[in-house]
Batch of 4 targets.
Target 1
Amino acid sequence: LLINLDTAIELLSSGEVVALPTETVYGLAGMISHESALMKIFKTKHRPFFDPLIVHVKNLEQAQSLAQWDPVSELLAQKFWPGPLTIVLRKKEGAVSDLITHGGDTVAIRCPNHPVFLQALRGLASPLAAPSANLFGQTSPTQAVHVEDEFNGQVATVDGGTCQMGIESTVVEYDQARRTLFVLRPGLLDANTLKHSLTSISPPVNVELRQQENAPGFLKNHYQPKIPLILVKGNSMPVNQQEILDQLTDFAHMPVREWILPDDPQMVARQLYADLRTFNQNRQAIYLVIPPHWPKEDLWSGIMDRLNKACHAWLDINDGEWTLHRK
Ligand code: TXA
Ligand code: MG
């Protein structure tokens, strides 16, 4: 069900949930002042309550009313908002529902860089909680039609075109005691860029990847398509490629096709989830040969994170020898 922005603002004001575009992926939005809207978000997505939501704000000032800020987090917000950066902060007493944070004392906040989402925020009296607009554990939507497909047209959606970034925001949390910025979920805003943006701060701040193994967004099988996806990694191609194809077909129980992607992280991110949806629809098993430099370059880290979670198996090829690992 497609709706316009004015209708979306009306529905949100009355405590309904609506799918809205952001620059990363489409979000399933509800006002944080309406507990019933928050409940609807979890119910619509079949999302467990232990998975906390991101609060979307119109600007830094609005974010300051929700959480306690430190100078490092504030500098990051000034540099990268609106944009694909989510900042985890200590929440202010009584400012954020326990439904959003699963009763925890931190809240994840971001200001999205999309005219539709920002206009909705400016038209509303409170920020919007918005997880990606997909069923729990499934691939995030990057087009309005993906949201329609995911929920059989049952979720009111504003069509804002294809998301420019294509994978979810980078999630960070600054640890003041350790002077370290932890990257909890990698994204297109990569660790090097974050580090460079903090060079004016002294003493210097470390930037470290700390994936939360047990947190839901960080489950090893997140984003998984329903058809088999196999990653082919390693330092060489095998002598007998047919033998490998046979093994992959055997694993998938159906013919496998190669997934060809451009060698540009921005372009890959933009088409990644749409491609996975197409493969699902065509019931086609896919293998993707990972170029050796991808996992080593910072900009690829967000993409490799999603691919590692989405795949069902990977094939390691080293010096012509290969092994298939099932997840
Ligand atoms: O790009 C995005 O971030 C999109 C768009 C819609 O803004 N949203 C999104 O939301 O990806 P969601 O719910 O699919 O993922 C939110 C992630 C989860 O993995 C969750 O664990 C983490 O953020 N998160 C939320 N609150 C947190 C907190 N207090 N501490 C640590 N991680 C948190
Ligand atoms: Mg999600």
Note: The two ends are 37 Å apart (CA to CA).
Target 2
Amino acid sequence: MGLIAPFNLPLELDALRALPSVHRVVRHLSDMKRIYHDQEAVAAILSAGDPPIYEFLELANPTSDDSLSFGLTRISPGKIGREYHMTKGHFHLNAGDEIYVGLAGRGLLVLQSRDGQGRELSMLPGSLCYVVTGWAHRTVNVGEDDLVFLSVWSATVEHDYETIDRHGFPQLVLADAGRVAVIRNERFTGR
Ligand code: S6P
Ligand code: ZN
């Protein structure tokens, strides 16, 4: 459903949750269990329950090809084994850059080019990350609190999760002796 009049709203999770046109998705560990590195840790956690890892609230707005969609994402703090909570991540199939703006918490935006190069950008409250078309993006909560950010993208973008499901990302973000470490993912099969 398209939005036909100008509007404004507070950049707050509760404000978006209250809008009838918002699409809310909560991803639990069971929805993304294969993407975490430590499968023993995944199995141990799932044997005791199925924790929510993140939610996103999306206002998709395909009024026309010129429209923008936007959403708020909240990733809870925590780790699966040593790996920090993160989003599934995706490529944009068609042309479409994206802007991320950090609102709360401490994150890393993990990027992957079509030819398998990795890059990481810090996400802090008030900071902006610009994602160029062709780079897959995943967000990792490396802090002690919720990571909350705004994302804005072209409404015509189609999301490709399958490539990530199949090949993963070239890097892992882990806790290492109390610090955040980015290491090579030996199981990455893209290029
Ligand atoms: C959409 C944008 C974000 C993510 C959201 C959840 O293009 O990148 O709104 O959809 O952060 O991540 P994911 O990987 O599950 O879509
Ligand atoms: Zn995206």
Note: Residues 72 and 150 are 5 Å apart (CA to CA).
Target 3
Amino acid sequence: VSRPKLQAPRGTQDVLPEHAADRLALEAAARGILEGAGYARIETPAFEATELFARGVGASTDIVQKEMYTFEDAGGRSLTLRPEGTAPVCRAYLEHGMHKAPQPVKLWYLSSFFRYERAQAGRYRQFWQVGAEAIGSDDPAVDAETITLLHALLTELGVRDVALRLGSLGRPATRATYRELLVGHLRAHEDLLSDDVRERIDLNPLRAFDADHAGTRQVMASAPLLVDHLAPEDAEHFAEVRARLDVAGIDHEVDPTLVRGLDYYTRTVFEFTSGVLGAQSAVGGGGRYDGLIEQLGGPPTPGIGWAAGVERILLGAEPRPQPRALCDLYVAGTTTAAFALATEARRAGLGVQLELAGRSEKGRLKAAARAGALWTALVHDDTGAIELRDMESGEQEPVESASAVVAQVIRGRHIA
Ligand code: HAM
């Protein structure tokens, strides 16, 4: 009987050992930059009540309408694999009373997320994001700072051909007035629009700016723009954000049509793209969500943040040289004495690999070289005699005891 081959589900991928170094470097860079700026790590559950995303991300978004992995558990609860991190972090902020801590509360995460999307290069059904959220202040300095931190991260990781687009959506009242204006414009040119856009004129007219459809694009070319209709406080907030990006030397382009795929945004929105990523060029994005916490049942609380796709960062970065494995000592022996030597060396803090495949004495040396060992301890099967070989020079000497091997390797490490 032949059975179908088992494979990772469509849109998912294994993170293999050869990818580990790049991911570790990304995590180290994110930790350095974000924790240096006072952000603390948070990890929320991989699944949440479906209601959180329906209310937080917004019922009219693609994410909620067609991309969520939603299931009922054995207890009859509707749960959803998290499609994004902002709503969960805000839920945690509320649940743990973080409004009592000094504001803004600054949190970062590196986690995997799930969206039922059409899989292609740079777009997956399970993907990783590094993200940062600053909750509890509407100061434009928070907007500019958080954008600056993402810029620093992309720069440190060597993401190529990066550009920043920035916009402001104003606050809900402004947006409601503007929305009427836009709906009026779309209605006036309804016959030119794609079916998709026409069906959603009332639900989400802003998405029309996102369309590829030629007729829709023609209509949008003359559409009214929100940036031209901002309330004075919002226009001033936006100008303050931009002034700070200018002093930080961060080039940006104001894009009045910047649309993000989530409903919670207010005021500042932004997106970093990389020119080397092809169709999925958005490497990271975010914005302000001053109404979200209230939407989730909390007191009015401003917030802003971003998330960047880990796979896209790695695709967009210069390839890095693979670092060498760290093996101080290869114990080329199979006896219990060899095992004891390896254990003693590890307890002394050394990186130690042990002969595990019963190779011949010649084969063991080859394996030690492959492992990149600095030293090899040849433990003879019959006599128990130990010889220590300096793998770089090829010099080999008899050594009295396991302790002497450990001492010699530690000394060698200090000289190196
Ligand atoms: P987002 O724009 O949906 O925002 O996702 C942020 C980034 O995650 C994207 O720029 C992209 O790099 C990556 N990404 C998204 N979907 C996929 C996918 N299917 N495959 C691979 N990478 C993907 C958010 O998720 C918001 N929570 C960001 C935010 C935080 N806004 C405020 N705070």
Note: The mean pLDDT is 95.
Target 4
Amino acid sequence: MTQQLRPNGSLRHLITLEGLDRGLIERLLDRAQSYVRPLDERPLSASLLEGITVANLFGEPSTRTRASFELAARRLGAEVVNLEVHLSSRTKGETILDTVYTLQAMHLDVLVLREAEAGVPGYVADHVAPHVSVLSAGEAHLSHPTQGLLDALTIRQRKGDLRRLKVAIVGDIEHSRVARSAFHVLDALGVGEIRIVAPEAFMPRGEEFPGCPRLRSIEDGIRGVDVIMMLRIQKERMADAAVPDAAAYFAQFGLSRARLGLAARDAIVMHPGPMNRGIEIESEVADGPQSVILQQVSNGVAVRMAVLEAVTGRR
Ligand code: NCD
């Protein structure tokens, strides 16, 4: 496994939240919180990362993650370059490392990678020059660490003490890096109960999500919970024949207003986006008073500022 910390204990790469200690996570969240601004105020702008160059390499589609990494870097004064490069070992003739060394020769400090192929961010991190950091912006179905952090920050803002909370992660868990990173961060932060709620076809196999109750009905799964994290059905990670019929899925597992009534009265509803309205979530819920979906997006920029600042050691 890739060594994410420097010998002095500071964060160098962020590939996964698995195994990160609680103190480090809390410091990142505190720092991110200091970057949050009300939407009617101008966003913070600083020169902390002046002279630093960040490269966004997205091998899979992304709107909010890519935009928020870019804005986070620019608002701290870094230079940003967005490259249409696929680091997948299956594409082009050039090896992953040729691409990385080419970029390094242009004096890049941070590589932000999104890849459909498992293992690429860690492999790159293991081979970059000592001054270069690698941040995963989503690795296959495995990990999406900055999403996990922004989800934790959002929950902390709305709910305060996490120890007594009941959180339900609902939907296509099997194919979801968002669910895995949420589990890692909420587990590290000591959340009281993390439920895995999925129809049989989307229930993860094996030893993952240790200690989490597994529920196969959404009604049982969200009853009494404080936080509902809905997930997108990841069609791109399943065979066409496995993609459920939209109407049937909504009837069985969609978050409707009626079902939301089963959760705690002040429960919050989350979704990483992009949403399939009317499939995993009803529009009335997505846009309703319990939804914190746009707050998650705002927090995404703040979290990525904190992570960029941490790995470049400019504090
Ligand atoms: C997620 C992703 O791409 O992993 N979206 C995001 O980063 N905001 C979740 C998803 O695509 O379902």
Note: Residues 62, 64-65, 138, 144, 147, 177-178, 232, 272-273 surround N-carbamoyl-L-aspartate (CB under 6 Å).
